[in-house]
């Protein structure tokens, strides 16, 4: 890992330029995610400012961008709708606390237990949900709305061929906002959905009663937010690790996310996390160090202070077009090949994750369901136990534990064994638990009743150990 | 002769043919080193990470793409080393060639992505235009 000085000042020129590019690309997303969450655009913009600035210092993955995100916005929708903004700030604080605890509990290790299928399902359902959130803003409003969405999409996909320095969404926003103002077409603007205040965020204490009831309201949301934020942040960290060919401290990142969320909650922002898309933009634009993240946050705030009154004039269809581009970029398009080629069980886990997220609008529920389902599939897979007969020798293939004892016992119960003396060969097997030992004892008793002599052979050391441990226990009774 | 030869590899058949030509040249001089460069494309990083179980597995997956070339190099007993770089394939190869001051670049005429090549112009074309040393494009 690089020294702290390297992480900050190893790439000053590249970091400053890429930080500016990211700030420009962040503004439309921060606004769009605020609209998804049902809060004022300022809540997402303040969050993006504080998240980026704090994570620049506290994070474990230099060059990664954190801000207000769609994944988090989706989780907080019901909280904002039913209890209001102050409860969102309180939930953001609690999210931070939970994430710091997770960080100290070495959550990064646990992340390895989330299978690929679940992660693929995560990004795909995120893309689907962000797209679904855009639908009410462009379907069935007016013909001009469709035209502006279409033109935005054409611009954001063709401009990068010719102009590489300035992010295409920004050019599309400036161009189409000017067109909309001067042509006088009737389009909904960001100003219709919220206000932009040109002031720095200030320290606030969430205006909620500090009691058990409040905790009961916000805790489920905070837990979901903490899980979703860490899943996306640690996935993004892996992607940045891969792109830069460097390593990062994932547990420090988890704690950093927590600290950033606590600060964000105190400064009137919504909970955030790392962003895959923006981090990729940062690295591609030459950003590598902590400075890039800091510049992104500072420059974003500067732009809002200077240009705030222009931001409200941006037509909604343009923002929708940009968000559709974000969805297309977020979706994992190799998934279709994956569905055809991957093992059936993996494909089912991926689809289940997507279905549950789209159903519940909560990414954390999809992740948990996906992990549980794949764990069940795993147990089913390793519980397959086959016995092969070779003369008077019966060779056990597979693991003998609570889920496989039935097939082991049934084999000896229902097969006609003719020889008077047999060997059960465990060279391709291992006994894992008390059920396994119990099954072996049962089979020995069963065969002894039929007058068959049994020899258990080729047991490995761990299996012998568990047998002697458990039998020693039973004999002492 | 050429002391350092950069061989661009992407897992395509053309890259294998390019490797064979590079070996012919390297065989002339026992001091020549072939530097195999494989660029892990930024654009594919997200899906690569999503579809691999660990960074070690992903690294192995990438090494597999150039295993055929590595085998050829091993069999022909030339000196070689393998570099996996990260970035956009064309510019990254050019940067490596110019910074490391290699003496020759050997690259296949077209890589894996035929469609992208038609739209954006091929990697080999970009490399040929921008490297400071001679380039050999292998059909």
Automatic annotation (TrEMBL), chain A:
Membrane topology recorded in Swiss-Prot or TrEMBL: Multi-pass membrane protein
Subcellular location field: Membrane
Residue ranges crossing the lipid bilayer per the database entry: 16-39, 45-75, 87-107, 113-131, 138-159, 165-185, 217-239, 259-277, 289-308, 314-333, 367-385
GO cellular component, one term: membrane
UniProt keyword Iron present: no
Record's keyword terms, sorted: Membrane, Transmembrane, Transmembrane helix
GO molecular-function term, one example from the UniProt record: secondary active sulfate transmembrane transporter activity
SUPFAM superfamilies (alphabetical): SpoIIaa-like (SSF52091)
Record InterPro entries: Membrane-Transporter-like, S04_transporter_CS, SLC26A/SulP_dom, STAS_dom, STAS_dom_sf
Name of the protein described by the UniProt record: SulP family inorganic anion transporter
Taxonomic source organism: Lysinibacillus antri
TrEMBL record, chain B:
Domain UspA: from-to ranges: 1-139
UniProt-listed InterPro entries: Rossmann-like_a/b/a_fold, Universal_stress_UspA, UspA
SUPFAM superfamilies recorded: Adenine nucleotide alpha hydrolases-like
Domain of life, per lineage: Bacteria
Family classification: Belongs to the universal stress protein A family.
Descriptive protein name: Universal stress protein
């Amino acid at each position: 890992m690089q020294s702290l000085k390297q992480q900050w000042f190893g790439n000053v020129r590249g970091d400053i330029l890429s930080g500016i590019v990211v700030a420009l690309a962040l503004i439309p997303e921060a606004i769009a995610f605020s609209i998804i969450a049902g809060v004022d655009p300022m809540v997402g913009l303040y969050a993006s400012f504080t998240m980026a600035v704090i994570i620049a210092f506290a994070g474990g993955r230099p060059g990664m961008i954190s801000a207000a995100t769609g994944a988090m916005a989706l989780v907080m929708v019901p909280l904002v709708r039913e209890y209001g903004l102050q409860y969102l700030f309180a939930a953001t604080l609690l999210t931070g606390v939970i994430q710091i605890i997770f960080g100290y509990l070495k959550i990064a290790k646990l992340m390895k237990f989330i299978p690929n299928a679940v992660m693929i399902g995560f990004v795909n359902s995120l893309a689907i949900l962000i797209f679904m959130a855009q639908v009410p803003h462009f379907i069935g409003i007016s013909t001009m709305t469709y035209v502006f969405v279409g033109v935005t999409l054409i611009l954001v996909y063709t401009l990068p061929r010719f102009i590489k320095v300035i992010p295409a969404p920004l050019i599309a926003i400036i161009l189409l906002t000017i067109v909309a103002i001067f042509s006088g077409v009737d389009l909904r603007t960001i100003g219709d959905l919220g206000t932009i205040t040109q002031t720095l965020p200030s320290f606030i204490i969430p205006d909620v009663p500090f009691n058990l009831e409040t905790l009961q309201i916000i805790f489920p949301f905070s837990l979901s937010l903490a899980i979703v934020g860490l899943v996306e942040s640690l996935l993004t960290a892996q992607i940045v690790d891969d792109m830069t060919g460097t390593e990062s401290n994932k547990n420090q990142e988890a704690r950093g996310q927590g600290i950033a969320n606590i600060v964000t909650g105190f400064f009137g922002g919504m909970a955030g996390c790392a962003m895959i898309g923006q981090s990729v933009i940062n690295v591609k634009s030459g950003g590598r160090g902590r400075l890039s993240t800091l510049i992104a946050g500072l420059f974003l705030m500067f732009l809002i202070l200077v240009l705030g009154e222009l931001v409200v004039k941006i037509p909604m269809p343009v923002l929708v077009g940009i968000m559709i581009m974000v969805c297309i970029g977020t979706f994992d398009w190799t998934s279709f090949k994956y569905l055809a080629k991957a093992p059936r069980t993996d494909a089912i886990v991926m689809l289940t994750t997507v279905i549950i997220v789209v159903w519940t609008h909560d990414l954390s529920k999809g992740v948990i369901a996906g992990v549980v389902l794949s764990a069940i599939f795993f147990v089913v897979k390793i519980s397959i136990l086959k016995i092969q007969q070779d003369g008077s020798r019966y060779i056990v293939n597979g693991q003998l534990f609570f889920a496989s004892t039935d097939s082991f016992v049934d084999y000896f119960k229902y097969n006609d064994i003719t020889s008077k003396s047999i060997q059960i060969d465990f060279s391709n097997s291992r006994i894992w638990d008390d059920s396994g030992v119990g099954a072996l004892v049962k089979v020995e008793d069963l065969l002894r009743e039929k007058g068959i002599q049994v020899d258990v052979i080729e047991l490995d050391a761990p299996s012998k150990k568990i047998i002697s441990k458990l039998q020693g226990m039973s004999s002492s009774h | 002769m050429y002391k350092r030869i950069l061989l661009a590899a992407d897992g395509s058949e053309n890259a294998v043919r390019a490797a064979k030509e590079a070996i012919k040249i390297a065989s002339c001089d026992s001091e020549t080193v072939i530097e195999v460069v494989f660029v892990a494309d930024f654009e594919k990083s997200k899906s690569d990470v999503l579809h691999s179980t660990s960074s070690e597995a992903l690294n192995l997956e990438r090494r597999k793409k150039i295993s055929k070339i590595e085998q050829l190099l091993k069999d022909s007993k030339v000196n070689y080393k393998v570099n996996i770089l990260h970035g956009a394939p064309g510019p990254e190869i050019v940067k490596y060639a110019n910074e490391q001051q290699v003496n020759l670049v050997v690259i296949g005429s077209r890589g894996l992505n035929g469609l992208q090549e038609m739209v954006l112009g091929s990697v080999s074309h970009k490399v040929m235009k921008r490297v400071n040393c001679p380039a050999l494009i292998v059909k």
